[in-house]
Amino acid sequence: MTLAPPARHYEYETRGSQIYVDSFATIRAEADLAAVPVDAEKVAVRMIHACGQTDLARDLVIHPGLVSSARSALESGAPILTDAHMVASGVTRARLPRDNDVRCLLRDPLVPGLAEAWSTTRSAAAVSLWTDHLDGAVVAFGNAPTALFHLLEMLRDGAPRPAAIIGTPVGFIGAAESKQALIDLAPESGIDVPYLVVTGRRGGSAMAASALNALAQERE
Amino acid sequence: MTLAPPARHYEYETRGSQIYVDSFATIRAEADLAAVPVDAEKVAVRMIHACGQTDLARDLVIHPGLVSSARSALESGAPILTDAHMVASGVTRARLPRDNDVRCLLRDPLVPGLAEAWSTTRSAAAVSLWTDHLDGAVVAFGNAPTALFHLLEMLRDGAPRPAAIIGTPVGFIGAAESKQALIDLAPESGIDVPYLVVTGRRGGSAMAASALNALAQERE
User: In which order are the strands placed within the sheet that holds B195-198?
Assistant: First the structure.
């Protein structure tokens, strides 16, 4: 097979590195990041980059300890645990400081039976399988509000505490409420785990993955 | 290991099927889907579900032949080709009518060399490797504007035509322009391939995957 590129018909930037530079500059020119903690600015920029929406900034709530806690955990080799294979797929392995494990247990053979027995979603049941890996892990929810609620209930029951929680489940049923519950966890229970939340209905796997990719290393 | 569920602390819907039903009902109550082709209504609803934003409807541009062309292609066993592993990861295999192949060639060993030789992105170079599979395929762009531009240039150069193009690349550099170029392809060149586009900067892998999941079968 002899491959040749098609004739150039459109004018567009083809240099990947330049696309990143121009994208991040556009975001910084347009987005109001004043409410974002100083050390989380690159996290916010990368999340906006992933969704194409500068107004995401207004829905970001970031714990002041989020970046330092998540980054030092990853630099110590902590695993990333997530509720969705799409999130795991979106983590750029080359950015991980210690070739950290990235795990989604949704397809574990125990999950369907637990979900049935506990009358909950598979996404939530899978979170119970995180228990032995939770201590000091970086966890990310890019899909299921029930999974985030389930983790919060585990923490209230005394489960090991992760180093950071990326809370960006998406949707119309329970998403906003689960994220508010994460924000309220420390004030209500004293369990103070650094978090990042996109309030409201907005969220998703790309937001969770982009936050993880920004937390993985300081370099853009 | 004896597993027990955590004590229920929050009030939330835990039945997965009910979450879908309630979500889709909320979307239909709130979103203005009047401009969406009748047979694409479920596609729009599922895309809104994936991003949590009812105003997505106003940015959807859907070719009147999109649903019939994509669905009959998939029912005939056509492959799905996509620019991003996250999109491939988001396709619910159980919904595919013929256990269709879902391919992303971004990690093909030929890609880095082609991208270098052609001075373009890896995402774009990988699209050239689709050539032998393009005829009648369903293709989906959930990430890279350069990849969509590259396919449009291949089509103008006489490449085999896919059955449908899901055009939801995301971002600040080239995304809006690449999607407008897809809309303009038929009027400008006579190459009339049914498409779905989210105009503007918004887009991403979840939108592409949710569109594919809705196209895969009529049943919600």
Answer: B60-62, B195-198, B164-167, B138-141, B80-82, B102-103
